[in-house]
């Protein structure tokens, strides 16, 4: 059946960021910046302690798009990101995507994307454009 997406429709996913998550992400990407991996160094930064990679937080946006809205078969075309505040080890972050507009004849949609911590403070904000699948399961 053909999918029916409407502006305002949203989905989200939450995750508590652990030291293991950060080290696995560092290993996969090769981004071993000491702001993420070295407590002694990180304690001298403006954040006062280690922070998670911004792209780790942004990766949760991809999980929502690929698994929930629009879901499996979605193809990313573009993503803008603004990094607004740090994510610390132990923070529970929630990535939420909300449909802004839909162009059915092109199977294209634009969504606002936000990652916020457990206190509702926005860490990442942006906009995604993607192709949605022709059918839903």
Residue windows where pLDDT falls under 50 for at least 5 positions = none
Oligomeric state: single chain
The proportion of residues in beta strands is 25-35%
String of helices and strands: EHHHHEEEE
Strand order of the largest sheet: 1-3-4-5-2
Radius of gyration: 16 Å
Count the E strands: 5
Put simply, the count of helices is: 4
Percent of residues in helical segments? Answer: 10-25%
Largest sheet: 5 strands, antiparallel
In round numbers, the mean pLDDT is 95
Distance between the termini: 8 Å
Q: Label the overall shape.
A: elongated
Summarize the structure.
The chain has 137 residues and is α+β, with helices and mostly antiparallel strands. The protein is built from 4 helices and 5 strands, in the order βααααββββ. The protein has helices at residues 19-29, 34-37, 39-42, 54-67; strands at residues 10-16, 75-83, 92-103, 108-116, 122-131.
How would you portray this structure in words?
There is one protein chain. This protein is an alpha+beta fold and 137 residues long. Helices cover 24% and strands 34% of the residues. The chain has four helices and five strands, in the order E-H-H-H-H-E-E-E-E. The protein has a five-stranded antiparallel beta sheet, with helices on one face. It is elongated, with a radius of gyration of 16 Å.
């Amino acid at each position: 059946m053909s999918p029916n997406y409407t502006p305002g429709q949203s989905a989200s996913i939450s995750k508590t960021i652990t030291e293991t998550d950060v080290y696995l992400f560092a290993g996969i990407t090769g981004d071993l910046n000491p702001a993420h991996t070295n407590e002694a160094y990180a304690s001298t930064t403006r954040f006062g302690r280690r922070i998670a990679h911004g792209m780790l937080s942004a990766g949760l946006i991809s999980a929502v798009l690929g698994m929930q809205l629009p879901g499996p078969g979605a193809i990313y075309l573009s993503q803008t990101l603004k990094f607004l505040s740090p994510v610390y080890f132990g923070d529970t972050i929630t990535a939420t995507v909300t449909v802004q507009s839909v162009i059915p004849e092109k199977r294209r949609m634009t969504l606002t994307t936000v990652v916020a911590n457990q206190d509702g403070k926005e860490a990442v904000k942006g906009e995604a454009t993607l192709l949605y699948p022709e059918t839903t399961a």
